[in-house]
Amino acid sequence: MTNVTVSQVTTRKELRAFVRFNYKLYKDCPQAVPDLLEDTLDTLDARSNPAFRFCDAAFFLARIDGEIVGRVAAIINHRANKRWNKNEVRFGWIDFIDDLNVSRALLDTVEQWGREHGMDSIVGPLGFTDLDPEGMLTEGFDQLSTLCTIYNYPYYPQHMTQLGYVRETGWVERKVFVPKGEHEANNAKYFRIAEVAEERYGFRQRHFRSKREIKKGGYVEKMLGVINRAYVDLYGYSELDEAQMKWYADRFLLLLDRRFLSVVENQEGEIIGVGVCMPSLSRAVQKAKAKLFPFGWLHIAYELWFRRKHQILDMLLIGVLPEYHDKGANALFFADIIPCGIRCGYEWAESHPQLEDNIASQKQWKNLDCSIHKRRAVFSKSIR
Predict the structure, then answer these.
(1) Are 265 and 329 in contact (CB under 8 A)?
(2) Which CATH class for the 5-173 domain?
(3) DSSP assignment, residue 129?
(4) Cα–chain center distance at 166
(5) What is the pLDDT of residues 108-119, one digit of tens each?
(6) Domain assignments of the chain as residue spans, ordered by start
(7) Which residue of 147, 265, 273, 314 has the lowest C-beta tally within 10 Å?
(8) Whole-number Å distance between alpha carbons of 349 and 34
């Protein structure tokens, strides 16, 4: 039997090793996009991430003969547990070699840590909040991953089943082709619906001249406020507070492309819906070897601001306030973003993960040329 030892991360050096193990494991995998080192270190740092005010967390490394062969984060989100009346410990940032002894040792450690903190079940992969990567890939292993989602090898979900975990819920992701030629979406369907919504309800698009205008007006925080209300009843959602919104706003603005920020307001000028896209940074992060410094930022800057021909557009967030569902607000997003995608020469867009049982969200794609090309899931188990 393999001699696996698991120890808790206690130093900054070990935390860096925790983050970099992902890159080591996937360095020869063309579909994987590694964790961005500096960004992930901030996320896992209690001094930086405001989620630690209502979350407990511990990070663990598995070793065989001193060599790191796996990692996992154990997280208790007290706010989400209270909201959903649960006593769950989450596992996240999980990676391991194809050895059942390693995955078992990692998850046994999280289970024990959870029991010691009064939890009665374990679920994951999940992060601190829904803006962290979540969901284990179960289909689409041959597809290029994105900066904001998890890539894992096909043996991961097999290990989960062998260890007694059951699938709790899942997400789907779509490849959405930019409309061309005679496709219905290019024949003004979304534009007609958008016009009706504007005339009937007084909806309008807000566009921004600069990132300074966005920051000065606190628009990122306002947009995240919409996301809070739009996602409040979705699986396991952990509501963002003011400190978290400011933290995410500072990070978000660095990579924002104003051309693909779609904000819908009502007659009173209140934001009722948000659509956020950005050029895919998957290949750029691979070339940067997951590090911004000293030279990795050059690859990302080139992709964001200097590349003339793009292929993939990543859809990061789409959210509409519940009271405005079925009133055409989503059509304004597509009527805004589709022409820009055509002008910029994009071939297709990658949708953000959407819960498979969120029927209203699934319907918005029906008039576009698209197909589901990835599926992911969370797994759970009783630990009592």
Answers:
(1) no
(2) alpha beta
(3) S
(4) 22
(5) 999 999 999 999
(6) 5-173, 176-381
(7) 265
(8) 20
